[in-house]
Amino acid sequence: MTNRKKIGQLDVAVELADFINQELLPKIERDEEHFWRGFEAIIKEFSPLNSSLLTERDNLQSKIDGWHRERRGETHNSVAYKEFLTEIGYLEGEEENFTISTSKVDKEIALQAGPQLVVPVKNARFALNAANARWGSLYDALYGTDVVSEEDGAERAGGYNERRGERVIEFAKNFLDESCPLITGSHKDAIGYQIENGELEVLFESKTTSLVNTSKLKGYRGNPAKPEGVLLVNNDLHIEIQFDENSPVGSTDPAGIKDLILEAAVTTIQDCEDSVAAVDAEDKVEIYHNWLGLINGDLSDTFTKGGSPTTRVLEQDREFTSPTGEKFTLPGRSLLLVRNVGHLMRNNAIIDSSGNEIYEGIMDAVITSTIAVLDVETRNQLSNSRTGSVYIVKPKMHGPKEVEFTCNLFKAVENLLGIEANTLKVGIMDEERRTTLNLKACIKAACERVVFINTGFLDRTGDEIHTSMEAGPMIPKTMMKASSWITAYEDSNVDIGLACGLQGRAQVGKGMWAMPDLMAAMVEQKINHPESGATTAWVPSPTAAVLHAMHYHRISVFDQQDKIMSRVPASIDEILNIPLLEDPTSLTAEEIQTELDNNAQGILGYVVRWIDQGIGCSKVPDINDIGLMEDRATLRISSQHIANWLHHGICKKEQVRATMERMAGVVDEQNKEDPLYNPMTRDLENSVAFQAACDLVYDGFDQPSGYTEPILHARRLEKKAEF
What we know:
Blueprint: E1 4-7, E2 10-13, H1 14-28, H2 32-70, H3 78-87, H4 107-110, E3 116-120, H5 124-131, E4 135-137, H6 138-143, H7 162-179, E5 192-196, E6 199-203, E7 208-209, E8 217-223, E9 226-234, E10 237-243, E11 257-263, E12 267-271, H8 281-296, E13 300-305, E14 308-313, E15 318-321, E16 327-330, E17 335-339, E18 346-351, E19 357-359, H9 360-376, E20 390-394, H10 400-417, E21 424-430, H11 433-437, H12 439-445, E22 450-455, H13 457-467, H14 484-499, E23 507-510, H15 519-525, H16 528-531, E24 536-539, H17 542-554, H18 557-564, H19 572-575, H20 589-613, E25 618-621, E26 627-630, H21 632-647, H22 653-670, H23 688-698, H24 709-720
Parallel strand pairs: 3-12, 3-24, 12-17, 17-20, 20-21, 21-22, 22-23, 23-24
Antiparallel strand pairs: 1-2, 2-18, 4-11, 5-6, 6-7, 8-9, 9-10, 10-11, 13-14, 15-16, 18-19, 25-26
Helix pairs in contact: 1-8, 1-9, 2-10, 8-9, 9-10, 10-12, 13-21, 20-21, 20-22, 20-23, 20-24, 21-23, 22-23, 23-24
């Protein structure tokens, strides 16, 4: 039972009220009565508007379902379908050309292309690791991953492997040659580095050379004649060559190089949404407390590593000397964005005057912004934004009206807090079909605030399945990424973003690499994101950020964008190409079962940790024991896909149930070494996690937009009640 405190006409959970009144408001010097009165007024004004937007979603979906049902058995008529979507207002008219006017945007968002981390802010250790991932060791990233082969005695296991170390150094110096080439020779053959007359001199046995492009020298640390570090820049990303002849690695290097440090995660999204399990005031306060610590600069976390206690804190800025002798600093931490939740869910942390749980998105907007006032007014120990902006990523919005609602909400929050108009910037997740089709209008609605558009292809696929649930059975999930609609969707996002003037003002982003152990494949494939014109793309770890950073050295994204702006824009008709299974009888029984196995195993592997342990994002082994980063977006795809096949008779409920039971055993076996794990097969009928997984499949058809949150939240609350 939640203990509550009456504040005005609100019933507020005691832990949330205490956090706001005792921890937060004193730090920003805001009056308690004024804050709560304004918060209550925002709830009263925006809750009915929020409800009406959700009703509009349901009404449009009902009309689309009806259109498809009426034409069951007919060949899909794409022309008539497009006309119908226009008629009902799902597909809105073309916007006239415009250019966004967002101002006071930090360089990391406007001008620097580079990796972006997404991390659950509910986990303090992960949040700190991500914030500190602005800089990372290339040597460590290469040594500890499969990017460097383990063949011919270069294994990772055990102590330091000199053979592997040699390969790592060779790889890293080849990268250095590519990004910062010398007039003659290679960095591999250098025996020393020094700063002379404001330029970098690289020493060889019989000669001295310098950089082809002398402007790539940005600075140094220590003695210019024998520096501790040399700072280079390429495509606006920094590389520090670090020297230490007494270190294990530096002692074996002719030039005394001990490491290459890359500027990596330029920005980080601290996530309150898909990667966290937050269902009540207790969870939300933990999230808000960590966000407060990050913004204030005093968040820390102590944990055991290698048998000893280790405390993690935020990194300080990095100090250098310019080639001409002036001191300067570079940010030591990622620029932080915060992802609020979407419009759908309510939370019992606050009960409004009508006795309703308030919309969680409204609560997030008010509280995460209030916390960020510390940074806006420079009351914090370590700064985040140097322009005085607050960056809020808003997920799962359906169309321009929902973007407009968000912007109006942000305006009301600014008025409550007494901060400058348009301080609260918005990142638009292009991950719902109605937003994709009306993206230009969505950007127009936020033209003074938008700093980010991003293709979230995982949620976007889930919405594609749900929106067209009645159209017919979908192709197997493994075929989705090769579908024409998804290529058009990815291209259209860039086309429209550039047409609206985002270049040099806002990020154009791409989605997550979901296989954190397969870094060689990532290094090979993820270069397609900067090639596509994206100024940022998501990575699952600090190590992945370092490796992905190399792609932005090889590709000048802004040059790439200039080329893209001359191409023919992606077609809406292609985006509307529903990924239907043309001939359901073409699937063999084995293929159907394999698809069910893969989906069921992924659902169960993720849901069991969500329900039982409150873990919203984790590396979950798939059916082949390959670790995949799973969150609610991947869950949405898998559950909606089975629901779609059930609805259209590709499989039967009995087959799905048998599959779920069998895969529960597989998941139990995969987690047997986890001391906190509660096996589902011990009692399937009373396993809340197993029942939640079944609910997601059997009730998937009826879930709003195919979202997983309503079922997950209800079942997690049920589980927490057992504690």
